[in-house]
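Course assignment 3, question 2. Fill in each field.
Student: A.L.
Task: Predict the tertiary structure for the chain below.
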Amino acid sequence: MMWSFVVAAAAVVTALNVRAEQVLLLDTTTEATLGWTRFPYGAQASTPGWLEESYTNFEKQINWRSYVVCDVAHHNVNNWLWTPFIERRNANRIYIEIKFTIRDCSLFPGNALSCKETFSLLYYEFDVATREQPPWEPESYKLVGRIAAGEGRFNTNSEVDINTEVKSIAVTKRGVYFAFRDQGACISILAVKVYYITCPEVTVNFARFPATPTGREVTVIEQANGTCVENAETAPGEVPPVYLCKGDGKWTLPSGSCKCRAGFEPDLNNQVCNECAPGKFKSHTGDDPCITCPDYSESTAYAAAECKCVPGFYRAKKDPKNVPCTQPPSAPVNLTVTFADQFSISLAWQPPHKTGGRNDITYRVYCSNCGPNIEYRPAATGLNNTRVTVMGLDPVTEYKFQVYAENGVTEQTGEEPKKVEITAVTEASVVSVVSKLRILSVESDKLSLAWNPPPIDLTDPDDTIESYEVKCFPKDNMEKSANATLKISKEPHVIITGLKRDTEYGIRVRAKMKRGWGEFSGIVYARTGSVLETTFVGEEEGAQVRLVAGVMVAVVVLSVVAIIATVLFLRSRTDDECDKKQPSDCNALNYRNGEVYTGPELEEWLECIKMSRYIEKFRAAGILDMDAVVDLTVHQLASLGVTLVGHQKKIMNSVQSMRAQIRGSGPYGFLV
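Answer field:
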């Protein structure tokens, strides 16, 4: 920015020092003879009129052809003298400079009949030069002015006083005649010069402006458009160069500019653009000078717009031309496995020792023998950090991983990026599986469930349970649904909330052992209700058990119980282990694929029906197991201290349900 300001300021100062130029159209001082048209002329003339003669002053080296007239002794003097036809060329305004002398009328006492001390200057514009004498009638001419001796008149007792008068006229036609009219003066026209003024040719801001004639009027400003010097151009976004020519022939108010092209630098003094020398370059149009090639690059020719990278070094497409050339990085180092289980492996590494001179290193991870469904977290390519986890692997499988280091010039090399490799093996699948997954209660928007922990080896420190993962998902969408809910629990029970009303859900649980995740349990299904009732579902060794019991009309209840009891009777014949009883009052669910298994304890039953407040009363009365519960009567409940009719009804409904199951299942236990 500062360099551009200095260039522009210096160029303007240079232009302001240029003076106006005169373009001569007529100069009598350089001609040996004139032969201008005169009137009157010849033998018929009443007065001698204008006569051509020489004016000499050897001391001043003057020898001019001139015209004189001195008809002061005549009446009605009317002498005309015409210049030749003067073409105006590019002129908008023409100037005429006259050097003359006038004799003082006091030199002619008594002899001067019409002595005057002025003469008239007139002009006549015409589009075509003619051989005929121009008209001399005054009405055909325009008066420029009456001219008098400004410097003084002379007589015999003084030296000749040469007067200089400059007049100007605006012109529009091809050319002009000037006329000198004498009406009784004693005059010598010593020299006549006709010219026009131009703002001279000039170069400013690396733009060349041609010589420009001034305007038709002195106050008019002419605009000139500049042309960029060789190897310069108007910079993008800037206006073309313009300069204003004033009426006095001086330039003013330059605007716009040209800038040296890429590969050329400005020469301020000479207003030219010079080539960058070998070893230097300039990458853009502007006022900046050429600079030395960046590291690992070179230019061997003149006018270089960029320096080419030396072999083995590269420049990315987005890199500026003034940055050093760079290389691809070396391989990452210290690739290690930071975690591995049955299904995933985590890797970590350190950046390469050699960055290649760049700071845009990214990493790419590739597994040569992984399946198509693996997942990289956070990503497999374009990694900015030095860690990745590969998921979706198979247990007890050896995998080979490569980690590549790449940067902005890697693709330009045409070679494979540097890499580091490692082989890792996933762990064996943990066979630990939770058992007896059961749903304790179901409401319109939540489920309460519990399970038995998997068996553990107390002598093995790695065979300890760290947590449980519970997966709950709508049955129709199964586990791939985006609506699946995952919960982590430290205890073998959990409450899942935020569920949809009247929707069937599948639930499965797995344990996180210290040595890895165990397998998921079998799926248990439950449907959320439209009323806030409780439900209990049990499961053992992968079997799915569904129970539906409702507080309905007695006939409907007995019919449903009879159907379920029949199915269980047929299936229980093949299951010798299901010989324990389990009560439940969960009367809001339908159960499918029912199976006999050991029922809940007293505390769990009371908690399921939300009557756990009476646990101590049951114990105090000696009711310690479910066999005693089945024989309960309303009178006994009242004697226990359960006096609220609603609580009595809720407990007895559950007891009656268990009695009906006992009658349907015989000696094989309770259906839940």
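Instructor remarks: The first helix runs from residue 2 to 16. Confidence is low (pLDDT under 50) at residues 1-14, 531-599, 665-672.
Grade: pending
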